[in-house]
């Protein structure tokens, strides 16, 4: 069982790569962003508060996201977890370490996907996804073959995220540099950090990640 974290700013391609790993290796994708987007549609007071915070581009409290991950880890018996968008703070990183240890698991690799800010603005501002199967598209670099129809599942439920706009992206990037990027040093010193070039083609990034997984497995 291999457990990995995909670490990188919004738009680095974490979700895209996680989807491939699920398909190719049967791993389980745990995205706190996806869980929170689900929570916000629940119509509860918590959901309403979460929606406000997310739309601004700020981080939701550690307590909420750690609780979500704890619930998922307890309920899944997986061939390996991909943590996407979690941890985002040092407190979350400590909590994840403790949760994995408690269940007799360990972290095998933290994969930093490095991308420069300019590319992120470009990627985020053209991004849309299929609301049914989660396939990710881009206006310029990966449009759907037929306009308004998902290539993968044929759904017409194509969505843009409320926080994929220039204003929220600025806040999300600041949050990343202030609160999440210190995790790079944290995991480097733990001996778990691997870095891949997130600007490369999707297939190339997937190959680089596969190499890391093979390396991590044999170590
Ligand atoms: P993502 O889909 O990972 O880009 O996350 C979208 C938004 O959900 C973020 O901008 C935060 O508001 C919130 N969020 C997701 N994961 C976390 C986390 N681990 N800690 C705090 N907030 C989070």
Quick overview of this protein structure:
This protein is an alpha/beta fold and 219 residues long. Helices cover 50% and strands 15% of the residues.
Strand content: 5-15%
**Radius of gyration of CA atoms, rounded to a whole number:** 17 Å
Structural class: alpha/beta
> Into which percent range does the helicity of residues fall?
40-55%
Mean pLDDT: 93
Q: What bound compounds does this protein have?
A: adenosine monophosphate
Helical stretch tally: 9
Biggest β-sheet description: 5 strands, parallel
Instruction: Quote the distance from N terminus to C terminus.
Output: 13 Å
Overall geometric form:
globular
**Total strands:** 8
Which series of helices and strands comes N to C? Answer: EHEHHHEHEHEEEHHEH
Q: Low-confidence segments, ≥5 residues, pLDDT <50?
A: none
User: How are the strands of the biggest sheet laid out side by side?
Assistant: 2-3-1-4-8
Explain what you see.
This protein is of the alpha/beta class and 219 residues long. It is built from nine helices and eight strands. The strands form two sheets. It has a five-stranded parallel β-sheet with strand order 2-3-1-4-8. Strands 6-5-7 form a three-stranded antiparallel β-sheet. Helix 4 runs parallel beside helix 5. It is globular and about 45 Å long. 31% of the residues are buried. The model has no long low-confidence stretch (mean pLDDT 93). The protein binds adenosine monophosphate. The site of adenosine monophosphate has 17 residues, from helix 2 and helix 3.
């Amino acid at each position: 069982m291999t457990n990995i974290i995909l670490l990188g700013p919004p738009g680095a391609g974490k979700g895209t790569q996680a989807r491939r790993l699920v398909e190719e290796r049967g791993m389980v994708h745990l995205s706190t962003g996806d869980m929170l987007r689900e929570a916000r549609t629940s119509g509860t007071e918590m959901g309403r508060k979460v929606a406000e915070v997310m739309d601004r581009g700020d981080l939701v409290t550690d307590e909420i996201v750690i609780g979500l991950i704890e619930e998922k880890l307890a309920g899944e018996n997986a061939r390996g977890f991909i943590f996407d968008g979690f941890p985002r703070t040092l407190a979350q990183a400590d909590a994840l370490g403790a949760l994995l240890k408690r269940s007799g698991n360990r972290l095998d690799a933290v994969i930093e996907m490095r991308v420069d800010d300019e590319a992120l603005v470009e990627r985020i501002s053209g991004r849309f996804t299929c609301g049914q199967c989660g396939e990710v598209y881009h206006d310029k670099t990966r449009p759907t073959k037929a306009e308004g129809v998902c290539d993968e599942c044929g759904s017409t439920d194509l969505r843009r995220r409320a926080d994929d706009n220039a204003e929220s992206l600025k806040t999300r990037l600041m949050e990343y540099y202030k609160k999440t990027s210190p995790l790079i040093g944290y995991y480097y010193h733990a001996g778990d950090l691997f870095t891949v070039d997130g600007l490369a083609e999707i297939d190339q990034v997937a190959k680089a990640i596969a190499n890391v997984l093979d390396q991590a497995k044999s170590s």
